[in-house]
Predict the structure.
Amino acid sequence: MNQTARFLAGFTAIALLALTPGCSDKPSATDTAAADASAGSDVAGASDGATDDTGAAADVIAADAGTAAGDVAAADDSTTVAPNWSKFGINRGAGPCPPGKICTWAWTVTPEGKWQAELAGTNKGGTMDEDDLTALLAIANSSAFHKAMNAGFSCGQPPTDVSVSFTLWRVGVVGTPLKQDVTGCVFGNPQDNIAQKLNALLTPYGDKK
């Protein structure tokens, strides 16, 4: 083959290569559109993921806020106060008292359950049973009890031949302790009021316990 023939053969091969589909280095319009669509889908997916993450974060914040609000509400509804008292006492008297008789009884107890009793002139002492002490503290540490010791108990008409009073010594308070008459509560209505319960928990000690 002479030089001219070789040149023509090479030129023809180059032309055929350029016209063959899929052999061009330049991407087609279809390929570009497909790539753009794929990229757009990836961006949308990323956006959706970010939205989901933001929503999840908002849910967590809302849940935390709800929990905190619930905790505050629970604290506001609590009926228990700090045990800011050092001693609680019950005094009982009866009359008319026969000559030569002692018709007074007194009990005191600390938050630790140490009790002392003076029963018609006889002194006794000890430690309350755990169950009794737990029940007593549930009342003595309640806001309802402390309000009543400050403002008075509201109960039925008391009898005239016996009297019962409560005394509460408070921590850090100098002077006269709080004292309230609870005769109508202990011997009257409403039944199962806090004064009746405290009286029933403490007064058996030294006598029946």
